[in-house]
């Protein structure tokens, strides 16, 4: 094996959230799976190291009924971490209260911050989101803010103390993929040192690969796996697509052209044989 192949075979591409080093670039949600066993198998197949759980959804169900224990058992083998979220919140005050509850219940300062401003699109409310992020950062949380791809809002979230950003690819659960790659590319170009995770709208492994090819650090998804007829196989497919997209970004994707460019030279004299 050549030295170059040895270099490629060694894992040297970790990413970080604060001082936490992570290998997997696949964040997986836990809602809507056919059974706890399927969920556990999907977590294993995905290779994820960050698993999200909706606290408000669990409270509405009257408790987790051992649900979180099932998730923790599936996560333990691969060193995954739990990321509670504030899904269902519509005000900063409500989100902050839920985040504090999640920290007490799950013993983690990590929180995926969601503050929805529109019931139809589930689009984040930028004003309430920034307010909640600022307060939670002051309270010692590591805030993962679910936001749109608006550059100015993203800058406000960074100023509020967020260590990373989670812009949407499309509305939650829509499966539309990256509907505005220009805006996502602009974020990557303007915020080169910031961890960026595409969150929401991913429907197929190709969408995830596209996000990583753009230089995004990771993707978070749920429905594309949980709603598949075979969630475990789909989790594995996403894992491979994410790895391929990241490898392509590191290798360098060829520039797009508006015209044909021959791959074989056509100038000079033909070589005649015989």
What attributes characterize this protein structure?
single chain; 274 residues; alpha/beta; TIM Barrel; eight-stranded parallel beta sheet; two-stranded antiparallel ribbon; 10 strands; 15% strand; globular
Helices and strands in order, then pairings?
Blueprint lengths: L2 H7 L5 E3 L2 E3 L3 E3 L7 H11 L3 E5 H6 L6 H10 L4 E5 L6 H15 L3 E4 L12 H13 L3 E6 L3 H9 L4 E4 L13 H10 L4 E5 L5 H9 L4 E4 L1 H4 L4 H21 L23
Parallel strand pairs: 3-4, 3-10, 4-5, 6-7, 7-8, 8-9, 9-10
Antiparallel strand pairs: 1-2
Helix pairs in contact: 2-4, 2-11, 5-6, 6-7, 9-11
Task: Describe this structure as you would to a colleague.
The chain is an alpha/beta fold and 274 residues long. The protein has a single domain, classed as TIM Barrel (Alpha-Beta Barrel), CATH 3.20.20.70. The chain is built from eleven helices and ten strands. The protein has helices at 3-9, 36-46, 55-60, 67-76, 92-106, 126-138, 151-159, 181-190, 205-213, 223-226, 231-251; strands at residues 15-17, 20-22, 26-28, 50-54, 81-85, 110-113, 142-147, 164-167, 195-199, 218-221. Strands 5-4-3-10-9-8-7-6 form an eight-stranded parallel β-sheet. It has a two-stranded antiparallel sheet with strand order 1-2. Strand 3 (26-28), helix 2 (36-46) and strand 4 (50-54) form a beta-alpha-beta unit. It is globular and about 80 Å long. The model has no long low-confidence stretch (mean pLDDT 90).
Low-confidence stretches: none
In one word, what is the shape? Answer: globular
Oligomeric description of these chains = single chain
N-to-C CA distance? 40 Å
């Amino acid at each position: 094996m050549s030295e170059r192949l040895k270099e490629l075979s060694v894992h040297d591409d970790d990413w970080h959230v604060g001082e936490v080093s992570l290998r997997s670039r696949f964040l997986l949600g836990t809602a809507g799976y056919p059974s706890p066993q399927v969920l556990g198998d999907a977590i294993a197949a995905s290779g994820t190291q960050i698993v999200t759980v909706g606290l408000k959804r669990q409270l509405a169900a009257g408790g987790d009924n051992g649900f979180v224990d099932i998730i923790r058992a599936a996560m333990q083998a691969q060193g995954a971490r739990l990321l509670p979220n504030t899904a269902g919140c519509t005000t900063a005050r409500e989100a902050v209260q839920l985040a504090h509850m999640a920290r007490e219940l799950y013993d983690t300062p990590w929180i995926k911050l969601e503050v929805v401003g529109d019931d139809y699109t589930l689009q984040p409310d930028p004003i309430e989101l920034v307010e909640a992020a600022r307060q939670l950062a002051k309270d010692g949380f590591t805030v993962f803010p679910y936001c749109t791809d608006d550059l100015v809002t993203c800058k406000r979230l960074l100023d509020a103390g967020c260590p990373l950003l989670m812009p949407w690819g499309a509305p939650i659960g829509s499966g539309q993929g990256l509907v505005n790659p220009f805006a996502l590319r602009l974020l990557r170009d303007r915020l080169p040192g910031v961890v960026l995770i595409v969150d929401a709208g991913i429907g197929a492994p190709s969408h995830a690969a596209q996000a990583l090819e753009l230089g995004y650090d990771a993707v978070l998804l749920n429905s594309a796996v949980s709603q598949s007829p075979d969630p475990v196989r789909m989790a594995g497919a996403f894992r491979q697509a994410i790895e391929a997209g990241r490898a392509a970004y590191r290798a360098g994707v060829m520039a797009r052209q508006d015209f044909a460019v021959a791959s074989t030279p056509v100038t000079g004299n033909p070589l005649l044989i015989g």
